[in-house]
Predict the structure of Glycosyl transferase.
Amino acid sequence: MLEKRESVPSGAVVPDGRTGFAGWRRADLGVLLSFLALAVFVLIRLWADPNGRILDRNDDDHGIFLFMLAHGERVVFDGASPFFEAHVNAPVGVNMMANTSTLALSLPLAPVTHFLGAGVSVALLLTLGLAGTAAAWYWLFARHLVRSRVAALIGAAWCGFAPTMISHASGHVNFVNQYLVPLIVWQVLRLREPGRAVRGGIVLGLLIVLQIFINEETLLFIALTMGIFVISYTVMRPGVARAVARRFVAGLGVAAGVALTLAGYPLWYQFFAPGNYHGQPFAPSDFVTDLFSVAAFPRQSVAGSETLAQRLSVSATEDNTFFGPVGLVMIVVATRMLWRSAAARSAAVAGLVLLLASMGPRLQAGGTRTSIPLPFGLISHVPVIDLVSVTRFAMVPATIAGVLLALAADRIRWSSPGRRRRFWAGMALALVPLFPTPVPVIPGDPLPEFLTAGIWKRYVPPGRTLVPVPLPDVTVGRTAQRWATLQNLDFAVPRGYFMGPTDPPGDRTGSWRAPVRFTSELLIQVQLTGMRPYLNDEARKRIVADLVYWRASVVVLVPQSQNAPALRATLTDALGEPQLVGGVEIWDVRSLPVPPAE
């Protein structure tokens, strides 16, 4: 199913029939260390103070992965449930399987989170994710796909540090850690070999389970890509496909059995346990790939333009194409060079199909939504597909581009000197402008003594919550959630930034925030407008009722919050004068009743 050799020009010197190069040398260790050095360079600003700085491109998602890592620390050190977190969105909690909980990453790094802080764990995972993904692809190229170290280096560097990877490094720990992708792809392809159905199926099943606990969206992309690849290859080489079909399908069956046996309960928990949801809080057409972005430079590169990228991308962490003008040309050139290979053609078809899918139901070009319909509109509401941010389908062609470039760089060795010079000149013009720059960061608000000295413990008995104001919420309450996560969720807080149902049980549509309550909406409006509302007795009663519902024992005003004076005045009107304790103003509400546990 995967062709190991291409025909070469007449008179060319061809190595033996093996793929990969013989033995590992010191140069290969140098390549791997260079990947690590480049990853450190990309994250160097965060490494300067990982617990005190925030990724500027996507501070919300930086915060949510601090939450995921703090949850992993609680699982290991406090015996909390791996699939449910009670210390965020109290008293309801969060279904962690219905979120990107990254348990395969957060649990092994729990000691780092516990002793050094969740910020260090985020920086470490982003760095090792970039370097590890490149290293895994280098292994695959070196062992199985090319004979040239230069070709392996180019392909691996592209797959590990492509614009889409650098973009997601500004907040998406789950998408940066893709080192299982080449292993899964290779294990799928090896199922065609005799005697691999059981052994290969078991290995593949175990890899699938691990990927489920890193990022299910990536696993969906792999499945769609391999499905399109296999269908395309079957059409092009029906005889070969028929010869391997029985053992290939048997291997997939074994892999599915292993994966469902090990991950069946967690997946049931994700889709049916409390906190489950369906769909996204946005339509598929909201976040799509712009046609012109395919040939543009990424903002996080030496040739990038922030202004242009903003027009062509849905956000700074979703620059999923941005191959550059010469880069796009070289991808086309590489595809043309490899066109005689059915495997390369099938890979190109898979990349093209998913690139088209990433453009959504209607074409967008230059930031303008056109009326031209696209095929994705026919499947946009299919279950599971409707959970995907559509533009992320473009991550697949970005990776396939790296594979095609590596194979073309390997094959060009057998071409004429003139053609080799033109090819390498094109590669230089394509790759040099895409060289990444360090991701930007901003300073985070320092944690007050009330938290760092453990003063909060005097005010928050077991079963009660600390209510920071502004309340933890998407965008407007990032500091409060960061407070809790950098304390490894030692205290429970209401609300938060996570994925859950909008208003259960009536509305289970996915939402980025907890269901609306009177006090949360009131305080958000005060924070955003700076206007102190008039509170009558009924409003005060509703605020107290929400505090009782949240099982509050202390309300803490975040000192650096937007419009803090208006928030202070509102809370004082509702709860009386605050106390200044440990660098923060607090309202001690331990006298409020505690509702019975549900």
Q: What stands out?
A: The first helix runs from residue 26 to 42.
